Records
---
Amino acid sequence: MQPLYDYCAQVVGAWGNAMNERGGKATLLAHARATARSLAKRASTPQARVEICLDLLADIGEPSLDVFRRALRALPVDERHYWVGTLYTLLLPTKVRRSQATYFTPPTVADAVVDLAIEAGFDIQADTVLDPAAGGAAFLSTLAGRMAAAGLNPNEVAYRLNGIEIDTGLATLSGRLIAERLGSPLRREVIINGDALQVTIPASYGLVIANPPYGRVGLDEVSGMGWLKVAHGGHVNKYALFAELCFRHAKPDGIVALVIPSSFRAGPLYNRMRAFIRSQAEVLAVGSIPGREGVFIDVAQDISVLIARKGKSHDATAAVRFPVVGAVPSAAPVTEQTLPSEPGDAWPLPAIDPTLVGGSTLADYGVTARAGYFVWNREKSRLVAKLRRRQRGYPLIWAKNVRPGTTCLPSGKKNAGTDFVTFTEDSTAIVTSAAAVMQRTTNDKQPRRLVAAMVDPSVKSKWGGFVSENHTIVLTAEDPEMLDLAVKLLNTAAVDQRYRRVSGTAAVSVTLLRQLDLPSPAAFADALEEADGDCEAAAGAAYRHVLETSDA
Ligand SMILES: C[S@@+](CC[C@H](N)C(=O)[O-])C[C@H]1O[C@@H](n2cnc3c(N)ncnc32)[C@H](O)[C@@H]1O
């Protein structure tokens, strides 16, 4: 067993490294952004962008690059490549950068993903590799370095590695980065320029590794019918298409390593993708990368790592590893658990502490959750600032009216007055009972995913009810006290952390909210009294309560 002192020193060391790393990263990012701004006009073509980056790599070029160049000089090769690639992405027009999702994998994460692939059986000395979204060669350059270190000569390495990249400039740049890593020009075109979803890929590979682009695509942009295996008609995401491609081009027993948005784990619309993966491969590891801590530049969502071995379908009784793949290696032991028995069901992360299970849900509080009703930009004519005489309407609660710790009052979109939604007949969308409202999406600056507030009782007495916009979730209950208790609980960090384990996205899912594990109302109410109203302490105690009572 590891001595406690060593373990603590490792954790403290890792934390210190993380702090230094974050500070260093912030400075480099500031340099990269400033450099990109100063060169924006000159860098209007892929060729011009590549030239700027190659000058930087060769430590030459114009004086305006001096500060950034000096900063890069001090870095190890993988970091230097990452920042040169990142500069290229910052030189892209914002629209292009977003549509291609040119956000690169930092070296620590690329290294960790390659390690996971090797643990899963990828043979660095013998296997071939494909990265269909090669970007700045985060994976291929790392693998080139590892293969060279394992004794392969540059030609052998170049024949093993294959990349596809849609951006002409990046395809050129990443080829050069790999050559620099190997200390030798490449004898073949390792990275081809093209759309991986369109080009013919003639082979299958021992490792298919990718941090693919993401974002919705219309069915008119998709070719073939492969998308049906991984997506639903109105909701096709590029990363699901890339996942299908990656599994298709892995050899039997080959490893697929994907760095993808965590929405695939729990999103209701990713059930086909989950079932597809399980039908194609044994799922070996599902790593989580805390995306909101700035691991990926300009990426707000949580990112996961999937490691699977193609061939047999996944055995629901097999243990799956759930490592944390952060900016610094985690010292914590890796948790294992099985995936749910239904192939399409969500893959929750293991509980923070599997012994602390509350055993109740919102339904035990008598609380019903449903999505907010009004989509203002689809029905603008029903949104009015004032109701005419005899016009029927109800005040609209916007997501921004919801703040934890205070009751919620409808306040207009422009922060003045009240907005009303008109109705010509009765509707179940009009909430007349005791209610609370939650924000349905949060941004990366908000510390919590779950943000709830009771609707002020004056809303009912003044207007007879309310409606809320579609970026909210409405909670209703017959008993206002139970609802208030549930709201207090939902706003605690203990519950927020549990929600994050089951959901990987910034949007709060009504389904997952309904299933969320909570302490029983009695346990939380008692704990709240004991803790003198301190909700956080009470939530912690109430989750522990089940353990203590079952131990007794
Ligand atoms: C999220 S980045 C990741 C790049 C790199 N593999 C990494 O991990 O840093 C995705 C890359 O895929 C490229 N890309 C986007 N759509 C593509 C497509 N249809 N075919 C090939 N590459 C594509 C983008 O230009 C971008 O460089």
---
Amino acid sequence: MPRDRTAREGVEWMRHVDVKEKVATLGGSLPDWAVFRRLGDLTKLRAREGRFFPVNYESGLLLYALVRHHRPRSILEIGTGRGFGALCMAMALEDSGGPGTIVTVDMLGADDPQEWALDDGSGPRMARLSRREVWERHVEPRLRDRIVQLKGSSFETLRGLIDEGREMDFVYVDGDHTYPVVRHDVYASLLLARPPFRLLLDDYTPLSHLYGVRRLVDEELDPVFEAEAIHTDGRWHGQPEENTPVAQSDQAQVLLDSERVRKRLDEAFPRAKVARIVRVHETWPRVLDRLSALRSLVRDLASSGRAKERK
Ligand SMILES: C[S@@+](CC[C@H](N)C(=O)[O-])C[C@H]1O[C@@H](n2cnc3c(N)ncnc32)[C@H](O)[C@@H]1O
């Protein structure tokens, strides 16, 4: 997989850059790393087999620097998780001193308990906690107040935002990374995006083929945008990748900027075509629901048939 610029059907492959280099080019002052470390320990720590890992706290550094630099007023995050990304972006909005809010969507709502690895200063531990519990205990209200949390899948929540005529300047796509879902999320984001806008996609994995993000970026987005792959430290210590240099590790965020394009966006992504693609993807969950209902019905019929035979 090429990491440097290499010809691809006359098009340059996307630029790869380390997060620290990218953040330096964006300029502006940054909070001390200890601030990201604390927020990460509260909302992004991961656990495996009794061990705890600070995985990819650098994504927060990148989100912070991008929001400080571009000063978006309306931000959408797809996939809230435990809130690390949203809180880093809220911190950037606060530090910029201007207006700005974040809408973040997730199947899990603010009050839904989830398995939570955290270290609040008393050592790492596992607990079953909701975002509301952790945020209210540990996060300043001025950050929480910048964030609107919507519960639901990206299919339904983004449809709601589109129908309300909402517009976004910055979108962080970090929900389900399978191809049909991430494709829906990106095209729905294009319907919401107001130029000049930026989209950041998590989990572009240049080495592995595990995720749909890579396919979508390579096939449909990089030919239109001058996409940039920004490498963050997503290594899991103790995993085979532990000793891989970060620049070669299998973790990058892809930045798409409406002001850095290879083709005109209105020609490459005409609104009517994008809207059609989104509608097609929106039918997926309904089709899957119906298939699952059909499967249950067939199973019930088969078991009642067997019960009659036994009588
Ligand atoms: C990797 S986490 C998000 C991490 C978060 N963005 C951060 O910066 O810490 C992915 C989240 O996406 C949510 N998710 C997965 N599929 C989704 C979908 N189709 N719609 C909304 N949320 C989804 C999951 O529930 C999970 O909380």
